[in-house]
Amino acid sequence: MPPVPPVMKENTSWSMLHSLFDSGGMPQSCAVVAELGMHESIAHALAKRVLCFHGAGDDACAGCASWTETGEHPDLILSGAPGESPRIDRCREMIEELSLRPVASPRRFAVFFGSEGMSPGAANCLLKTLEEPPSYAHILLLLETNTLLPTLKSRCWFRVIPESDVSKPRRLPGSDPEWIEWIGTASKGSPESVCADLRDWCSWACETGNMPLAEKLDRLRMVFREKRLSLAMSIDAVILVVREEVPFEQIFGALR
Questions:
Q1: DSSP of 170-215, one letter per residue?
Q2: Among 104, 154, 160, 245, which residue has the least CB neighbours within 10 Å?
Q3: Which residues pair with 141 in a beta bridge?
Q4: Alpha-carbon distance 141 to 175, whole Å?
Q5: Taking the model in full, what pTM does it have?
Q6: Mean pLDDT of the 222-230 span
Q7: Per-residue model confidence (pLDDT) at position 166
Q8: Residue 225 and residue 83: Cα distance in Å, rounded?
Q9: Domain 6-166: CATH superfamily, name plus number
Q10: 152 vs 124, 172, 192, 215, CA distance in Å?
């Protein structure tokens, strides 16, 4: 899992969340709203501290020593991938796993990605565990939008990390060398990071008063979310729609 970017560490909400560890008062049930591209980093950073015997996340304790090179841990339970809401059967499996005693750490940590999209049935099966988790269990619900079901929200320590605090508006590339540089950087990232670039460019376009461009960028970001394109397809689409100004319908018509 990727580390938390430096700009994220300067965020007030993120600092408050981390300060709970330092005070020994980390809530057992938490819900955090943040931009989708940050979810994996947030889950990893909090898991490091929750599963550490001393709450530091980077010492030589048995909990820290149990992390694998691929970012797995015997006491870390994940619902799937960022942006994917867990189905009711997976929620039930995670609750059962969470009830087991820790293997290598003092606690077990369950992360539910895409919590805003949980079905009522999936949410209902979580209610009791969120309200009264096992003494050694911690639960994290990650959301992209502030739309968590009230029944879940009332049982969690709730925090919103505004997008405006996570990233600053950046203008889109304006020359061939800048586009070449962006392609090189984007090709090392993920579809989510390309969406994050579109979001930043959209904010910049709004600030400069270029609303047609902002609308195009936001529309493209929404298409990416719906179609779930690969990284290569996402980069190609950005070049065609934004730089070459090819109509949306000409590119995405075949994907419907």
A1: -PPP-SHHHHHHHHHHHTTS-HHHHHHHHHHHHHHHHHTT-HHHHH
A2: 245
A3: 31, 112
A4: 41
A5: 0.62
A6: 75
A7: 45
A8: 9
A9: P-loop containing nucleotide triphosphate hydrolases (3.40.50.300)
A10: 8, 39, 26, 33
Q: Which helix (H) or strand (E) holds 221?
A: helix 211-227
pLDDT surpasses 90 at 94: yes
More confident call, 131 vs 207: 131
Sign of the torsion angle spanned by Cα atoms 23, 28, 29, 35: positive
Q: What average pLDDT score do residues 16-29 get?
A: 69
Among the ranges given (58-72, 77-91, 224-238), the one the predictor scored with the smallest mean pLDDT: 224-238
Q: Can you tell me the distance from the alpha carbon of 123 to that of 52, in angstroms, rounded to the nearest whole number?
A: 29
Query: φ, ψ for residue 131 (rounded to 5)?
Result: -75, -35
Q: Please give the structure tokens belonging to residue 78.
A: 């994940």
CB 207 within 8 A of CB 167: no
- Chain region(s) in the chain for CATH 3.40.50.300: 6-166
